[in-house]
Amino acid sequence: MAKANPEDLPTGPTTLRVMIGSNLRRLRETAGISREDAAEEIRASASKISRMELGRVSFRLRDVRDLMLMYGVRDEEEIERFVDMARMANQPSQWHRYSDFLPDWFSNYLDMEGAAYMIRTYEVQVMPGLLQSEEYARAVMMLGYGHTPLTEIDKRIDVRMKRQEILDREDRRPELWAVIDEAALHRPFGGAAVMRSQIQSLLDSCDKPNVRIQIVPFASGAHSGAGAPFTWLRFAYEELNDVIYLEHLTGGLYLERDNELDAYQAAMEHLCVQATQPHKTQDFLRQILRDHYS
Asked: Is 1 among the domain residues?
């Protein structure tokens, strides 16, 4: 089929670029062609080929065609399918209208989050973004952004609420598995009323078939999370490897090496053993409400 079927592709230009780049790398390596020789074919540098294969840059459609021909692809429909994918990958992200305040590194994460079929996240001090109530999100952002204009705070909250729509969409609804340190339940962002509403929102989320929530209680003592939040994204496309995402004050970091993935995946599994089992999470949350926010 000459045209790429949007229903068979991940959402967001970032994931499309990674998928195209992965396929181009596989074709190049199968053909036994070096990055240097591939770069010469499209009048570029070897580092440009590397960035293309990692999905870090947009694609010139002519380059995609020329590289595929160089790599021995003769099926015109297959070439056109990849060119169509590249054309789609070059389109602005759905988050583009927020680009005046949303950094590129976070827009890229939102694209990948939207394409994942499994999102496993561990949070220590705050609720996971996908589970925050609007009032709680506002309290967090008002504290964290200092003198940021209120209009920009409103836009940031709008982004956070739109992120959550993936949990309720009709197709490609991801599984969210959140592990939350008990400390986040006691950190009163916005005061008692906001926290009551937030914890009730968590209780409601527990009823969603695609959401699983666990709490790491203080009683568990030291644990493998070591106080550092992280998110593990898994995709339904063989060209997209699992990604561990770490966020810091001024950027985001993606870990993709096997040894890094193994370490964080093992930590997540250990956290899940130490945490409340999902069927007991609602009881735990109700007890928190009674003891601290009644």
From this structure: no
